[in-house]
Backbone:
């Protein structure tokens, strides 16, 4: 049985929604417009949506300066189609300014092949704002189902 992923519509949030907020305008758009994320998972979802929507300005703004690449260009050839958060946490005191998110993101390449990016991301909070620090990633092609 074949499983086909369909792209999100313009009103659906690319991240799939958070806490019953499924429309982009209520879910990730406020963060893209400057609202601060309350925790690492919210920031990660907004960053995923920014990748899907080619919002490199937001990606750069929310990446910790010490690990942010100098050149962030969008990848218009990649179509991000699904996000699954496996776990997320804010560390307990005295390390409550750090957190992590483990997720899997599915994308399609220009030839329609499906890939999975699995990442364990680290986040840091500075002056009340969360930033993406870095992550350990694994990128694999998903075998087609028969």
Residues:
């Amino acid at each position: 049985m074949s499983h086909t992923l369909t792209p999100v519509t313009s009103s659906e949030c690319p991240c799939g929604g958070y806490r019953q907020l499924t429309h982009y305008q209520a879910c990730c758009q406020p963060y893209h417009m400057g609202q601060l994320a309350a925790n690492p998972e919210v920031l990660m979802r907004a960053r995923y949506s920014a990748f899907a929507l080619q919002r490199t300005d937001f990606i750069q703004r929310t990446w910790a300066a010490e690990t942010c690449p100098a050149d962030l260009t969008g990848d218009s050839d990649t179509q991000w189609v699904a996000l699954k958060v496996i776990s997320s946490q804010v560390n307990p005191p005295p390390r409550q300014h750090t957190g992590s998110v483990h997720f899997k993101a599915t994308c399609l390449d220009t030839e329609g092949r499906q890939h999975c990016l699995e990442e364990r991301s680290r986040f840091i909070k500075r002056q009340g704002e969360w930033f993406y620090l870095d992550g350990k990633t694994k990128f694999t092609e998903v075998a087609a189902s028969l």
Q: What stands out?
A: The chain has one domain: 29-141. Residues 1-9 have pLDDT under 50 and may be disordered. The chain is about 15% helix and 35% strand.
